[in-house]
Amino acid sequence: MPIRTVPLILFWIAWCTTFSSASHKADKADSSTPLTWLQKSATPRALMQLEIDGTAQWAYGKGAQRSRDFRLVCTYMRDGQRLDIQTTRFEGGKPISGWRSIIDGSYISYQVPPRGSTALSGLYATDGSRFIGAAIPSAWGGFEGYAAGDYQSLADVLGSGAPVQLSQESIDGSPCMLLQMDSPQHGRYQAWLDPELNYLPRKLVVQKTAGDLMGNQSLSQWTRISPPGSRGIVGITAVSYTMDQTMFERVQGRWFPLACHVTRVQTFADGNSEITTMTGRRTRLVLDPDLSNAFRPKLRQGARLANQVDQHLPYQWKDGAAVPLVDHRVVKQMDETAAELKNEASHTGGERR
């Protein structure tokens, strides 16, 4: 049945901030509600290590290009809304790449350089809250409200005002509250939340088509993909995401995610498709760790940072901070042009046709 949006937003925010409330004493599961859980939540300091085993398969791929196995090993540090996540990708048992993403007011992400070196370039955005979904590993993001490539949390999606359906349905024998919503900007969402786990998700399903947002742009704008088996560059026409087979563990009186299985299907304009399956598990959890060495990017002085919001305004790393990379000659020219326009406007009564 349909329910009003405002109470549901509080409900969903409580779930999306469940991980952010590890330091208070446990409540009985049958007496907790999403709203009271949100009101009692506290900001934690936590360190996790994750291992994610996956396989990517392409419908048109042939031979060695048909599928690819990989493993992701992640070190995940959190201090409230601050995140520092480093991921190494292994193929054939060997590390082939690594990257690090930091949310500390701003967003910085870069490829991890060889030991003892600093990175020459990276990605940057002044408002890191808009890129949390980009920082969290996709196989684990659903637990924190970021699914199917969304940079926005599901709490934000629910806040868009689209009608929401609420019902009851069991997952793996556990009675859950099922939320369903069709968002005109984000796609179709289904979430099975378990009240016995303080409303952590037992299962998530998201479906997106061409007009829906994925990341910071619509699916129809993802047009420069070269999947194995396709003849050249193609676009993405649809994405589906399922997180299920979830497992949880009680630590210091709180429920924390322990494992999950994720299936993501991307359909391309030429009929090709990519099916990625991932099994993620948490191998370590430390509450209130020492994070004195976290949130410090290892970027070389002068490293270029590509602005993820405005590509025409790049940044550089200078003296331990990101600063705009602006040619002073351009600034001077802009000032002169602005002065000329102001002078012209003063002679035409401020009207321009």
What order do the helices and strands come in, and which of them pair?
Elements lengths: L1 E2 L1 H12 L17 H7 L4 E14 L8 E13 L2 E10 L2 E11 L1 E6 L7 E7 L6 H4 L18 H5 L5 E8 L2 E10 L3 E8 L5 E10 L3 E2 L2 E2 L17 E16 L2 E15 L4 E15 L11 E9 L7 E4 L2 E4 L3 H20 L6
Helix pairs in contact: 1-2
Quick overview of this protein structure:
By secondary structure, this protein is mainly beta. Helices cover 14% and strands 47% of the residues.
Description:
The chain has a single domain (2-287), classed as outer membrane lipoprotein receptor (LolB), chain A (Clam). The chain has helices spanning 5-16, 34-40, 132-135, 154-158, 328-347, and strands spanning 2-3, 45-58, 67-79, 82-91, 94-104, 106-111, 119-125, 164-171, 174-183, 187-194, 200-209, 213-214, 217-218, 236-251, 254-268, 273-287, 299-307, 315-318, 321-324. The protein is built from 5 helices and 19 strands. Strand 15 (254-268) and strand 16 form a beta hairpin. The protein starts with a strand and ends in a 6-residue tail after the last helix. The protein is globular and about 70 Å long. With 353 residues, it is mostly beta strands. Helix 1 (5-16) packs across helix 2. The strands form 2 sheets. It has a 17-stranded mixed beta sheet. The protein has a two-stranded antiparallel sheet with strand order 12-13.
